[in-house]
Automatic annotation (TrEMBL):
Bias kind Low complexity: ranges: 203-239, 253-271
Coiled coil: none
Stated name of the protein: DUF2242 domain-containing protein
Location of region: Disordered: 177-271
Source taxon at top rank: Bacteria
Residue ranges of the TM segments: none
UniProt feature, compositional bias: Basic and acidic residues: 177-193
Length: 271
């Protein structure tokens, strides 16, 4: 086999190894970040930012979390879990509340839970002891110390985990005030003074005016008044008439008889 053939086979092997190495390379973690609004870490509530953060704080306290910091729009707390003798787990909550842009009575809560894992690690330490009289003589002294060391840290991304927490926060939100209904009070019946044991009021000095008695009906029939007699004018004396044979008096005129007015019978009186 010639030398050129050996070099060619070696170069081909290196190229194939490089291709295999590139194909087995895992994608970077940041390539999974799509920045889509999935709603896993946020939820909108019908309350102000202060009321929402107060409900978030009470929800953490009800589950045994230790509140490390609390503000009108931020809350932080953590809780420890012991899985076994050598592993320790801690969950830290970081909550931020912001008001709604269009409605001050609504706010959005952003929650983030961080999971830290700790493991028990043993470390060997040594020390030397020098004796001045004997010269430079050193004696190694070994010891072992146990300490918890953080070995992993990861953000919790489980949707069910945040859904359960947001449901608990909603139960601690302040309830809206109901309008008070005006109560209708029935009027109290006034009891007479005799029932209450009080003296009766004195009668008024001025007696009420009594109605005038009706006039008695007179049963006697009215007497009809007689009509006044009609005066009869007296006839003037007869003048003398001039006659050729002499003046002779003219016979006096006959006096008119007085006019008799017939009287009507009186009407009977109403009993």
């Amino acid at each position: 086999m010639s030398r050129s053939t050996v070099y060619g086979a070696l170069g081909l092997a290196l190229v194939l190894a490089g291709v295999a190495g590139c194909s087995s390379k895992k994608p970077a973690v940041y390539e999974h970040e799509n920045f889509d609004d999935s709603g896993t870490f946020s939820r909108t509530f019908p309350a102000s930012e202060a009321g929402t953060c107060e409900a978030a704080r009470r929800a953490l306290l009800s589950q045994g979390y230790i509140i490390t910091s609390s503000d009108a729009n931020q809350v932080a707390g953590n809780k420890s879990f012991q899985q076994n003798a050598e592993n320790h787990l801690q969950i830290s909550f970081n909550i931020t509340c912001v008001p709604d842009m269009g409605d001050k009575q609504r706010s959005t809560m952003f929650a983030n839970a961080l999971q830290d894992r700790y493991a028990l690690k043993k470390s060997n330490t040594s020390a030397s002891l020098g004796v001045g009289v004997l010269g430079s003589v050193s004696m190694p002294i070994g010891s072992t110390d146990d300490s918890m060391v953080k070995v992993a840290s990861e953000t919790v991304t489980a949707t069910q985990f945040y859904d359960r927490y947001f449901a608990l926060v909603e139960s601690y939100l302040p309830k809206p005030k109901q309008p008070e209904k005006a109560e209708t009070v029935a009027p109290k019946e006034e009891k007479p003074a005799a029932d209450l044991g009080l003296p009766e009021p004195a009668p008024s000095a001025q007696a009420p005016a009594q109605p005038a008695p009706e006039a008695a009906v007179d049963s006697t029939p009215p007497v009809a008044s007689e009509p006044a007699p009609v005066p009869v004018s007296e006839a003037p004396a007869a003048p003398l008439v001039d006659d050729s044979q002499g003046s002779q008096p003219i016979a006096p005129p006959i006096e008119a008889a007085p006019i008799q007015v017939q009287q009507e019978a009186p009407a009977p009186a109403v009993q």
